[in-house]
Amino acid sequence: MPRSEQIQTILTHMSRRPVISRLRALLLVAPILLLTGCSKNTDWGFPEGVTSVNDQSLSLWQGAWIAAGVVGVFTLILILWPAVFHRAKKTGPEFPKQTQYNVPVEVAYTIIPFVIVAVLFYFTARDESTITAKEPSKVMHTIDVTGIQWSWQFGYKDGGEKAVVTGTPANPPTLVLPQGERVAFSIYSNDVVHGFWIPAFMIQIQNLPGVTNHLEFTANKLGEYPGRCNILCGRNHSQMVFKVKVVTPAEYKTYVETLKAGA
Asked: What is the DSSP string of 164-178?
């Protein structure tokens, strides 16, 4: 081999090494970042056991992200592998073989996404039917949730028609819920479309003008949780927030009685 070709070969190998080193470093760092994001404290992104909805939908949420991660890593490997390990030599006279059709590959990348979507659809439909199911025999309390520009109104049916809390952008309301007791919610809107959203509960349902939506769930963990409207509803949309406070059944009863007496 002439000396010039030897030098060119050495330079080619040297230019490839940084790329391969970077790829190896990326493959080592990516799992560390993923594992850090899935630490025990975050419960894979959402707290566990907060409500009956969390118990049903948390596994679906986690499974969807795992499926997306697997597909993403596999796709990244398919993209980087030929770019790194099948690069043509700069001095090589050969031209890569051109393939117009590859029936097995085309069938595979048609069937595999279809199977993935079908599996996700099945589990989503299954969990959605469970979450939205109505069980009147188990309901112990009923609360009306009305979206208004730009705050919320909560009506506690246990305390009668006057046991109502109405918030303002400057004074956001608190939605008080009893621990361990199933609550039925009637969802209304007085003006435009709003979104009743409690992130920690993994719950979101729309407030639609002229339409009454329904939701039932049980809050299982004491504490305070932020809620907000997650559908753009006008000028002060960002101020349309509220707080959820989960208390013991005895405290809830006292709170409702206080609202009733104050009304």
From this structure: EEE--SSS--EEEEE
pTM for the structure as a whole:
0.70
Is residue 151 situated within a structural domain?
Answer: yes
Q: 243: pLDDT confidence band, cut at 50, 70 and 90?
A: very high
pLDDT digits over 73-93, tens only?
A: 999 998 998 888 877 777 777
Question: Which residue, 82, 98, 131, sits at the end of a domain?
Answer: 131
Pairing of strands 141-148, 182-189: parallel
Burial grade of 176 (CB within 10 A; 0-12, 13-18, 19 or more): buried
Q: How far is the C-alpha of 57 from the C-alpha of 143, rounded, in Å?
A: 23
> In the beta sheet, which residues pair with residue 226?
243
pLDDT of residue 45: 63
d(CA 45, CA 39): 9
Domain holding 61, by residue range, is: 3-131
